[in-house]
Amino acid sequence: MNDGSPIADVVARMQDRLAALPTELAHRRFFLSTYLRTTQAVGRAIDHARFEDPEWVELWDVKFAELYLQALDGQFVARPWRLAFDAPGELPPLAHVLLGINAHVNYDLPQALLAVISDEDFLDQRLLDRRRRDHERIDGVLAERVSAEDDELAASSAKSLLDRVLTPLNRLSSQRFLRESRQKVWHNTVELQHARLDGSYDKRLAELEVLSAAKVADLLRPGQVLLRLAVTGFGVTLPPV
Q1: What's the pLDDT tens digit per position in 192-209?
Q2: Rounded-to-integer distance, Cα 68 and Cα 70, Å
Q3: How many distinct structural domains can be found in the chain?
Q4: Lowest mean pLDDT segment, chosen from 19-23, 160-164, 173-177
Q5: Inter-CA distances, 212 with 51, 181, 184, 237, Å
Q6: Residue 150 near residue 167, CB atoms below 8 Å
Q7: Mapping DSSP to helix (H, G, I), strand (E, B) and coil, where does residue 74 land?
Q8: Burial class, 117, CB count within 10 angstroms (exposed 0-12 / middle 13-18 / buried 19+)
Q9: Which InterPro entries does the record cross-reference, listed alphabetically (predicted)?
Q10: Within a domain: 167
Q11: Cβ-proximal residues to 127 (8 Å cutoff; 6+ apart), any chain
Q12: What share of residues in the chain are helix, strand, coil (percent, to 5)?
């Protein structure tokens, strides 16, 4: 990741937020730290030419991160983020990470994609296919982080015997719901783009907020979250109009 790049700037802003977290909000560091390391990994993937359009991926990744930073700073906190931020601090670190991922991917990611894919771009099928392929390539970067992030979380808390036994399954489940959620995100992006054209964008975004908040609320229920996600899925789907 090149110093002075837009992604390096976002990473620095995340590091500033991490250093400034007050004690009473210490539980927010679990998702923030995970997201910081993931953003660094995306930056390295861009440097290593793993995307067809690296400049576009960098712009998109920065737009995506800025939506999270706005919520973290309290500038605009949609209901999925309110539920994730207000979750009990004593929840396991993994739970806080999953709550953050859920709110950010299901609610923020379609908005970030629309911010960097114009209505004219949607008319260019070759360009749109390239955007979708780069969107899917992010899965490879994230999948590579699953094992390392599991180790980070293990170091931050004592794992129960059940958690240790389930770790391999949890990692497989993580990769599965990453793929599943990304497919749904693309669907929701297309639905929101249609809404952008016909003037119903605010209404459809409000629907996405409700669906995303309901999924976060479901994650707050007691039990093995990753096992439940393996059955119910991670993403949400906007119904067709």
Answers
A1: 999 999 999 999 999 999
A2: 5
A3: 1
A4: 160-164
A5: 28, 12, 12, 9
A6: yes
A7: coil
A8: buried
A9: DUF5995
A10: yes
A11: 121
A12: 80, 0, 20
